[in-house]
Amino acid sequence: MTHTSAYQALTHTFARLHRFSHLGAIAGWDQAAMMPSKGNDARAAALAELGVLTHGIITAPQLKEQLDAAEQENLDELQRANLREMRREWAQANLLPAELVEAKTLAGARCEHAWRSQRPANDWKGFLENLREVVKLSREEGRLLAEASGGSRYDALMDKYEPGMKSAEIERIFTEVKSWLPGLIDRARAKQASETVIEPVGPFAVAQQRALGVEAMKLLRFDFDGGRLDVSSHPFCGGVPEDVRITTRYRDDDFVQSLMGIVHETGHARYEQNLPKDWLEQPLGRARSMGIHESQSLSFEMQLGRSPAFLQLIAPLIRSHFGEQPAFALDNLQRLYSRVQPGYIRVDADELCYPAHVILRFEIERALMDGEIEAEDIPALWDEKMMAYLGVDTRGNYTNGCMQDIHWTDGGFGYFPSYTLGAMYAAQYFASLRRAEPELDAKVAAGNLEPIFNWLNANIWSQGSRWSTDELVRRATGETLNPAHFKAHLERRYLGV
Amino acid sequence: MTHTSAYQALTHTFARLHRFSHLGAIAGWDQAAMMPSKGNDARAAALAELGVLTHGIITAPQLKEQLDAAEQENLDELQRANLREMRREWAQANLLPAELVEAKTLAGARCEHAWRSQRPANDWKGFLENLREVVKLSREEGRLLAEASGGSRYDALMDKYEPGMKSAEIERIFTEVKSWLPGLIDRARAKQASETVIEPVGPFAVAQQRALGVEAMKLLRFDFDGGRLDVSSHPFCGGVPEDVRITTRYRDDDFVQSLMGIVHETGHARYEQNLPKDWLEQPLGRARSMGIHESQSLSFEMQLGRSPAFLQLIAPLIRSHFGEQPAFALDNLQRLYSRVQPGYIRVDADELCYPAHVILRFEIERALMDGEIEAEDIPALWDEKMMAYLGVDTRGNYTNGCMQDIHWTDGGFGYFPSYTLGAMYAAQYFASLRRAEPELDAKVAAGNLEPIFNWLNANIWSQGSRWSTDELVRRATGETLNPAHFKAHLERRYLGV
């Protein structure tokens, strides 16, 4: 390691920021998983104070000088990559005037708060009024970010979640997906029409569901000395890399969704638990992007979790907790976990329909941010695209249509593509893995998941933010993002080809 | 409200400190009740960073000027009391040089860490080596604090926990207690020698114990919308006033201790939950002292919880969770909860023996801080006093003798008197309460605890740190601390006089 003053000073500042973000992460987890209702105002005030503090630290004038000076210093390759990531975090905090950040936070909070009652009331008009302000401020944010980075406003917003990705590339990929996805959905549904699926018969006691979830997490090598499983109304993976907190929710009439939700969050968790230990306090030690994060949860849930080989491991655990049922036969579990049924709601969508939900949102939010449409144009576009891609009629149904997601309410434009990028990366990893391990499914069925964990650890987890996303994926799989693997995976699973 | 600039600036600074301390309190609770082992280093680093931050805020040079300027401003009575408490917090942070604080923290951490293995190994010699350094630095702390406040080093250290209390006053009180306590213990034991006590027969499922504890908390009006009950290895009351976190520990062969432990922590919790709402972000809104805090937990545990009237309410709950047992008869429960048995360990001591444990510690720590003895003199004094006050032989038994407590390991000299002050205040409150409510026990037995809560809320909880301790107690009971009430309570309960 070369020790030089500007770079060293930066590492101290970013370590401080990391420690403060630790407190924010634990307080945020607690807020969702533990906190009783009356704690809310004091918690919000405490977290806002922390936000003011960390904003002040990362916008201190000397940081710009130190970043520039460090560029001239004699740094090794890892330090240089860390410096690149420092500059990225610095830019995101410093390119926006404090007044805009505050105005967007307030408008987003107002819109989201009202949305919580407007959505069940199907009140698009009321929602639209608040959304217009969020759209206006998000466009302004995109404009300022794009001034520095080039590209469109939408590109600049998406870059917060997917560094380096461009919307032209997303459009190219999604256009291709649209050319085959509706047909694939139709064929899969035709194939499944003749299959009988037996529903599990509840109730399923929450304590048993939790015990089953913990067993699944152990099978997936979640480190319980460095993390926990709890309950929250919206499942998430939070905490800090040294202490990862995942959550789920239980319904006593259904364990199927909760179980696979735990498998999903465990994928996020193992990424965090295996980020490079020596770099955890630095930007280099963080997960690469939202798409890469989602590629871990979807590697666990879609590539591994819903595979016949893995279900073969899980089936006896299910029976040991809930007794024998016809529904727990292996072939029935496989059918349960691969049913295709277009519907209104993205978060409830199956693997095959999910990309359609993402593509329509991408198309709408991109046009909205780039000024091709206005907020009032959303419902008509939503109805048209839902019908075209999924054959679902959403006219007049805002509740389960364009008002269903939280993302736009507080200005999270540019996030949606990450979900489907993650699914595509995951399919690409497993194509590589299967080339390296031709007997992968047999090993999984025999309880040996190590080849998967070893591959993900060596290629993704341990790499943190060392490489750009393209470079990370190229080093891991020999090529940059190639959606053909995703298509092949879907055809194999849903058409058996 | 008068708005004036220096005072206003101070309220902003103290509100900021309060919000940061919120994050520290929740992270601290999480560390004890939730955090898995591998989270420890990162948590310690995050909390240390927070400590550096808040120390920097409260030692900023302008605070001294603002405190002085605010004294000249036109403040109302509550603002003036708040300013007094601000100055108190400021003084405690500013009278000590940072090097001393750091040296004491390090020496304390080293001593405590080693103590965790030295105590079970009965290794007094090893412990003494570390303790000497802690004693040296604590004396230095006391010297610097005493320079500003007057009085002895021990007075200055005790003042951190019991503002305004002097060791001469404690000595006067404890000398009087020593004149009657050993005799009272002997007579109580003689009286109990002829009683038969039936032990409850376990096991007692933890889930049932928890449910029973929650019912007791509801009976005691713990607000579950503003707090939680969880498990930790050392029970405590933590969190923040808006969201109070109490903990207990369960043993499946005994529910008696855990249940009364929950009653105890609920007393602390209700104090916190009912501090003055409008002042929670300011020093005026905090609990008055450690002794007054303990007076709340002991009002709940000793005055109310172990009273026959309250046990009459609890007995049916116990039976509903654990079935019928001879041990659950009301008179047997009363005997279980008032057994007197001198022993080695302070935290396991009964109500009657507890003050003896405190008095011997006070005498030793006072002499140690004021330079009358050295650390190596502790064991001989301990042995002598344990024999004199409790008839217990501790010679050679450091593990269950002078090495049993955590307080001295990290320099917490001056804290012990608060425990017995709390017991005395609690007895004094209930003497007042009984004068105002002659039918108090009958009301409690009938399930009406409101007279107690109303009295505590009006006289203690809602007052925060508005008054000095003496003034608070005088306003509540018509006199300052008067240990005669404590003696009368013990004689009534243990001798039936």
Automatic annotation (TrEMBL), chains A, B:
Gene3D superfamilies, alphabetized: 1.10.1370.30
Top enzyme category: hydrolase
EC number from the UniProt entry: 3.4.17.19
Entry-linked Pfam families: Peptidase_M32
Recorded GO MF terms: carboxypeptidase activity
Keywords of this entry: Carboxypeptidase, Hydrolase, Metal-binding, Metalloprotease, Protease
Catalyzed reactions per annotation: Release of a C-terminal amino acid with broad specificity, except for -Pro
Biological function: Broad specificity carboxypetidase that releases amino acids sequentially from the C-terminus, including neutral, aromatic, polar and basic residues.
Protein family: Belongs to the peptidase M32 family.
PANTHER family linked: CARBOXYPEPTIDASE 1, METAL-DEPENDENT CARBOXYPEPTIDASE
Record's protein name: Metal-dependent carboxypeptidase
Organism: Chromobacterium fluminis
